[in-house]
Amino acid sequence: MAIERVREFLKKHGATIEPIVYEEKMHTSEEAARVLGVEIGQIAKSILFRTNDDAYGLFVASGDIRIDSKKVKALIGGKKQKMASAEEVEEVTGFKPGAVCPFALQKEIPIYIDELLHRFDVVYTAAGIPESLLPISPQKLVKITQGSTVKLAKEE
């Protein structure tokens, strides 16, 4: 089960945090923020992008922003970038869309973490199943994913 893979990864990396399982499924940042009673920006949404030449990047963004496609292009390259299909998400990450944990991935891919997550002491990532979230500090998230902190928000 996907949540067990997340737990094993955390244990292997000496993390003392544990995914929390809720009764409700949370497929969107809005749903998760409502269930938790937190700001939508504290929900760390994980979105897989791919290029036309099958390069992938996982973008972990604050739930209250739109990811700038120009920034995606600058980070993963290729002539065209688009969000990965549901099948690609599951194949590359090992998680279903809406439950993508930003670590314990099936395949090794670059991970880019939104700098705006650092506004908060604690953010919440998906933990492998739609009913589960993982409370984690942005600093710990960067460390455990070995991700790069970048500016992802689209300038309005």
UniProtKB/TrEMBL annotation:
Its EC number is 4.2.-.-. Gene3D superfamilies: YbaK/aminoacyl-tRNA synthetase-associated domain (3.90.960.10). InterPro entries: YbaK/aa-tRNA-synt-asso_dom_sf, YbaK/aa-tRNA-synth-assoc-dom. The keyword Lyase applies. Keywords: Lyase. Signal peptide: none annotated. GO terms for molecular function: aminoacyl-tRNA deacylase activity; lyase activity. It holds the Pfam family tRNA_edit. The keyword Ribosomal protein does not apply. This is Cys-tRNA(Pro)/Cys-tRNA(Cys) deacylase YbaK. It comes from Aneurinibacillus soli.
